[in-house]
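W.,

You were right to be curious about this one. When I first looked at the sequence I had no strong expectations either way, so I just let the prediction run and decided to look at it fresh. Below is the sequence, 190 residues in total, followed by the output.
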Amino acid sequence: MEKNKTKPPNRARAVVLFLMIALLLVVLILLQEKDSFLNLSHRNRVKVGIQAPEFTFPGLDGKVVRLTDYRGKVVFLNIWATWCPPCREEMPSIRTLYQELKDEDFEILAVSIDALGAKAVDPFMKKYKLSFPALLDTGASIQNLYGTTGVPETFIIDKKGIVVKKTLGARDWATPETTRFLRKLVSKIE
């Protein structure tokens, strides 16, 4: 009768696997940096403290909108898509934030990267009762311009056009803390 010859787990293999995974994570983090020698795409990574890159996109109404049109206002720039579940999740809180601050020196610019443009965005805006400006970037060029890694990503831009906050992923934007933070930016005299 043969004994079952199973080897105990090999600790050396587990350590090597762990180190390989850790190295992969480090490489992925380094790829996010614009100036990294590992960043093969050479995309800019917009960071807090720099001038927000200029863009021009049509709105749902066909009117062309430029970021610099809003100089002197705090801009909440949200890059999103209708097919993105986290984007859909955060839209009600963005709507609430807009209702709270729309009468102040504040604007939300929601840049959709939907390839279908208005055909996808217009019904979405109506369904969720969203009244803030939705801009159409059917070629998703804003992703290269701002160096985004996914959707949604949000950039808070002060009255001078400087990025003061960047967030990746969905958030509840209707919190008292967020409203206070944005009101402080709005009331800041430049």
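Here's what jumped out at me. The radius of gyration is 22 Å. And, maybe more interesting for your project: The chain is about 35% helix and 20% strand.

Coffee later to discuss?

I.
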